[in-house]
Amino acid sequence: MKIIGIIPARYASSRFPGKPLVAIEGKSMIQRVYEQVKSCRSLSEVVVATDDIRIQEHVQSFAGNVVMTAATHESGTDRCAEVISKVDGFDIAINIQGDEPFINPLQIELLCSLFEDEATEIGTLVKRIKTKEELFNENTPKVVISKENEALYFSRQTIPFLRNTEVSSWLEKHEFFKHIGIYGYRTEVLKAITQLPLSTLEKAEALEQLRWIENGYRIKIAETAFDTIAVDRPEDLETIRATYFNL
Hints:
Blueprint: E1 3-9, E2 23-24, E3 27-28, H1 29-38, E4 45-50, H2 53-61, E5 66-68, H3 76-86, E6 92-95, H4 105-113, E7 122-128, H5 132-135, E8 142-145, E9 151-155, H6 170-173, E10 177-186, H7 187-193, H8 200-205, H9 209-214, E11 219-223, H10 236-245
Parallel strand pairs: 1-4, 1-6, 4-5, 7-11
Antiparallel strand pairs: 2-3, 6-10, 7-10, 8-9, 8-10
């Protein structure tokens, strides 16, 4: 089973333009992500997928692999699909966020392990929610999971709703899970899901994985104990520096 790790990287972020190239204590963010991913033993290859010549040249400067993709893609999934159309020979593609400079390689290993089951079409990770802040944060997608460890539904709202239970005690009464935004796909499935039209549920929640579920694809779930810090805005760099460099 040959697995490729793909790191989509856009320069034109609305909240933080150029963030893949921002320096974090001597290394760019994209280089830190790349090095973390490269240490994952399950991956046969790692590439950065970008549409910007500045990112391409920077990745090449530290001897990283990079594939140029179209500027019209609306998601990292679409960008990964273009890479697969250009690079043959892989059974599984892992879509890794390009703005998590200290992603734990064990998370990637865990995701790869889901594909040891030949029935797995798509895989992703979840983490148990432990604080009320996360539980009711609409920027944190939640997921409900079947007994077969497959995703039943994703939502920005808190799901499931606990009827006849005080909101203050929800965490004591039920296990809730947040979605960790890293995906794995069998390559033929990746090609197929990117051809699907925008779905009703995806449009409602602005979560692309709902398109896949709505069209009958099954998403296998693994629970991780690790959390990662994403850099969405310039202020998030201070959290990174405080957490990993004690600055």
